[in-house]
Amino acid sequence: MSKKRREFSNGLKFTIVLEAIKGQRQISEIAAEYNVHPNQITTWKKQFIANGAGVFGVKSDDNTQELENTQEDLFKKIGQQQYEIDWLKKLEPIGIMEKRKMIAPEPKISLSRQCELIKLSRSSLYYNPRSASDKNLGIMKRLDEIYTDNLDFGSRQLRNVLRREGHKINRKRVQRLMRIMGIQTLYPGKNLSKPGIGSEHKIYPYLLRKLKISRPNQVWSTGITYIRLEYGFVYLAAIIDWYSKKILNGELSTTMDQEFCLSIYRRAVNLWGVPEILNSDQGSQFTSKDYRKMVKESGAKFSMEGKGRPLDNIAIERFWRTLKYGEVYLKEYQSVNEARTGINTYIEKYNSFRPHTAQGIQTPDEVYRMAA
Prior knowledge:
By secondary structure, the protein is an alpha/beta fold. Helices cover 49% and strands 10% of the residues. Strand 2 and strand 3 form a beta hairpin. The chain is elongated.
């Protein structure tokens, strides 16, 4: 015997749809209360918006007045949403520095709402990085060169090398400059690379030990490195596919906050899909609640290098060395835009032209396409 189809009165339909239009509760909650399928409510809502109250034959004066008030609010919301959509259409996928430049007073969109729409931290609007002295910049450039060739050097070894080269410098100053540079594997610094404490930050185990990496998107590796300019510095975050060595996305930032790390992962997923495992260091950008939530919701598993074990994230570390010797150290970038152009051009050449002997002298692009 077939199940008798449930009948809903026009008045009940109107009540349910009114609840849905108000947007104060989720459709699933309303569906559970009235014992109706969520898809049915969605259908009624579309009919209602398209045809008005007459679609259900509602005649109640009280309900009509409530409908008129609700419709007015609804049309205001629709108009605001359309304005916001038009505003967003002006933007293309951009980095965090470009996002900051986009934020400006708008008659219909508050600064807070603009930041929310483009997923930018409101507090980052007002952050002005302090510039380092010329003397410190010179030492930081040399520290970067030494560290790039010696990932296992700690602050004592770096101090000793600098002293042998004639610099009068103590370990405390070396540690302070390392914190500014974000040299995470050597000296985890406060609010930069130091793993957070408490529920906001969580460290995950290293999953790649003895793992055979045999295909693209099996493991991605991500990290942040210091990029020197002639009169300053910026940071570069990037994601590399461990198997093919293809750089999937990268972005420059003047600050070491989590925003540009979030944006490169979102863009990489949109372009290339979701990795099975995402490997990173234990920096606070990658252990933060927002970052962990984003990666988990994408479907990837976390893997993190052990403290003081930079080789656990060797795929991205090797790329940093290749990038710096093949591009950064050969040039003195005058500006952030010049650095961005140079690095983007190099990454494109690295992916499409530079062969890797470990992959049968194929380029990362070729390996990724053939095996994906």
